[in-house]
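User: Run a structure prediction on this.
Assistant: Running it now.
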Amino acid sequence: MTALTSDRVTGYSLGDLLAIPVAGGECIYCGALVCANADGCAVPAADAAGLVFEGIATERADNDNGDDGDVHVVVRRRGRFRLDYRGALTQAAMAARVCAVDDHTVDAANNVTHEVHVGRIDRIEGPGECWVYIDGAVEAGRSWNEPTTTTAGG
């Protein structure tokens, strides 16, 4: 390609919203924790193998009677969200990593089976509720490890 010779409108996005195809037979409610399954389709979060947290649903997406991808859900991938917490919360839980229990509840990683990471506790709201900062979990994708740098070519 040659260099520009005039102004160009370049697309831009903050990266905080993403539309994901919903798995067939699934209904995702507004405000739900959303994961991608092994096929890359959105499903309600759960403490289940093979799920990767993608964000919080900004709208309801009902694909109960459809096939994979017939409906898309828009998820918010950045920010802090007030979520239900299973169990008792103390100030010692601040900044702790939390994992999905279901599509609206999180718990400490040592209290779940499959460790579907959602984020870190940012503020304790009261009994059974906390604010969770999700950016790190979304960016980490399939691995909760801190991002690493690679050399060109892998």
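Helices lie at 135-140.
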